[in-house]
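re: ur question from yesterday

yeah so i grabbed the chain u mentioned. its 407 aa long if i counted rite. heres the sequnce exactly as i have it in my notes:
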Amino acid sequence: MNNKKLAPLAAAAAFSLLMTQGALAQKSYDTGASDTEIKIGNVEAYSGPASAYGVIGKTEEAYFKMINDQGGVNGRKINFISYDDSYSPPKTVEQVRKLIESDEVLLVFNALGTPTQTAVQKYQNTKKVPQLFVATGASKWNDPKDYPWTMGFQPSYRVEARIFAKYILKEKPNAKVAVFFQNDDFGKDYVIGLKEVFGEKAKNMIVAEESYETTEPSIDSHIVKLKGTGADVLVDITTPKFAAQAIKKAAELEWKPLHILTDVSVSIGAVMKPAGLEASEGVLSAQYMKDGSDPQWKDDEGMKKFMAFIDKYMPGANISDLNLSYGYAAAQTMVQVLKQCGDDLTRANVMKQAASLKNLAPDTFIPGVRIDTSPTDFAPVEQLKMMQFKGGKWELFGDIISAEAGG
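ran it thru and got these C-alpha cells back, copy pasting raw so excuse formatting
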C-alpha cells in the first residue's frame, strides 16, 4: 500500500524536476523575437536633403538577405523593416513609433541622422527599446549612464575635429581658419572639438564660423562669403549634397584653401565625382573604412568578401560610394551582436552584448581599426587615419590615430 502511494509522489517529483530543467533551458524573448524571426527596425533618409545616405539602408537590407540565405542567425531569419523619414525629425518620430508600437520590432538599428535621432532618443530610452549603432558621430550617443539604450557606431565628430585641429596646428600654425558647419548637433560638435585643441589660439585662428540649414537648396552664397574672409583653411562640416556644392563653388571662385572635409562626406561617388574630380584634388579628411573602388584593397581578404557580396546581392551598385562599405560594416556588427545573444533575445541582452564587443574587425574597416565597447564606453569606433584626395582617389597617410591620441 505504501509503495502504491509513493509511486505517484515519485512520478510527480520527477515531472516537477523535468519542468524545472525545461524552464531553465527555455529561450528568452522580448517583443520582436521568436524561434524563427528577429524583427529589426530602421529609419533612413531615402528622400530629402540627406538622400545620398539612402544606399546605407539598401546595403543593410541586402546584407541581412545574405545572412538569411545562409540560414539566419542561430537559426532565426532577420526581418528588416526600414522606413523613409526624409531626414525630418517629425517624420522620424512618426516612423520610429510605428516600428515600435505597430511593427513591434526588437530594436531600431543604425537609424540615420543627429537631429532626427535626437528627436526619438528619450522616447526609445523610456520604452527601453535599443537605439543601436545610430548612424551619426555625435558625441551624445556615448552616454551609457543617462541613455543606456542608445549607442552610436562611427567615430565621434568631436574626436575627428580634434585630430583635424592638431593637424592644422602642425602644418599651418598661423592658419586663418573658416569653419563651415551644419546648424545642428552634428556641426556644433566639430566646432567644439576644434576649439578644444586650438585653446586660447582659437580666437585668433578662427576668422569665420558660418552655418547653413539642411533646407537650403544651395550653399553657394556661404562659400562666397567665406572666401571674402581671407581664410587659408576651410574646415567643411557638411553632408554629401552640400559638401559637393562647397568643393565645386570653391573651385569656381578659384579659392584654394587647405580644405578639410568631415569623413561623413568623403564618398567618391556621392561627393567627389559630382563636385568634379579636378575640383576635389587635395581635399583632406580622415577615415576608418576601405573604399571599394580603391585598387590598393584588391587583394585584401575582407574586401574580397565585400565584393562577392556586392556582385551577388547588389549587382551594378556604385562601389565608389563609401556608404556601401559603411552599411556592410554596420550590418556585420549587428549580426555579431545577435550571434552573441544566443537564445536570450531580450532587449536588455541585446544592449549587454553590444556593450561587450572586443577586437571586432569588420571586413570593410582599414587594417588596425577595431570595434571595442564596454558597459562604460558606448563608442564602438575610436580610431582614424588621415587621407588626401589625389588623382581621383583617397590616399591614406600617417599612423592610425586613436581617440586618446586625438583628444
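noticed a couple things. Residues 44 and 57 are 6 Å apart (CA to CA). also The chain has two domains: 37-155+297-376, 157-287+387-406.
anyway ttyl
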